[in-house]
Amino acid sequence: MPAEAEGGAGRTLAPSKAAHTAFDDAQGIAFGAVMAAFGVAILTHLGLITGQTAGLSVLLSYATGLPFGAVFFAVNLPFYWLGWRRMGAAFTVKTFASVALLSGLSLLMPGWLSFAHLDPLFGAILFGFCSGAGLLALFRHGASLGGVGIVALMIQDRTGFRAGWTQLGFDLVLFAVALLRLDLQTVVLSALGAVILNLVIAINHRRDRYIAY
To answer: What distance, in Å, lies between the first and last C-alpha atoms of the chain?
Structure first.
């Protein structure tokens, strides 16, 4: 029966949400982590940074020489308590799995692929699209990559203020700090990638427009 007939003249009824199965969540988390790890591979190959806890981890990795995966896993540890308390056990467990998978993949991926040539401008754009798609998949399946993503999702669920904009605000502060260590061109290209990533999330992760988790 047409939606208008169901809901009355001039009204349409939103389709009902079907719960994700365990397999749905597993493939969504796997896809999200792989895409994000590929984005990190692009990022570190070009010597760029990004925002959120991933960006903080990249900066710490550059400064200390420690592998990104280990730093990223450690930086996220304090946020799991907040995620458990505010977002629930399921969200926290899925987020822990996503962070652990990304951390492991980022350690392995340099041995699986290399870039003979990658234009920095195109690389920054490609990073934004790939990582944005990965994060969007994680959000749709009730997970995140921890840290600022947890806080951003909490704010979106409570106030409607989009997660992408919260993350963008954090990114601006992080990039200002990055200017103390990196050259201006590197920071500008990094900021471009981060803006594209956050726009992908802000435009596509909308409960008022799309059916999401």
So the answer is: 26
The size of the chain, in residues, is: 213
- ∠ CA 110-139-151 to the nearest 5 degrees? 95
* Residue 56: closest CA among 123, 133, 188, 148: 148
Distance CA 206, CA 175 (A): 26
Give the whole-angstrom CA distance, residue 126 versus residue 7.
43
pLDDT per residue as tens digits for the range 16-70: 456 777 778 889 899 999 999 999 999 999 999 988 888 899 999 998 989 999 9
Are 143 and 91 a contacting pair, CB within 8 Å?
A: yes
d(CA 147, CA 36): 15
Kindly report, residue by residue over 80-118, the tens digit of the pLDDT: 887 787 778 888 888 899 999 999 999 999 889 989 999
Cα distance between residue 137 and residue 157, in whole Å: 17
Q: What is the pTM of this model?
A: 0.79
**88's torsion region: left (phi>0), alpha (psi -120 to 50) or beta?**
left
Structure tokens at 64: 């200390």
Q: Which one, of 138, 171, 155, lies nearest residue 54 by Cα?
A: 171
Residues 144, 82 contacting (CB under 8 angstroms): no
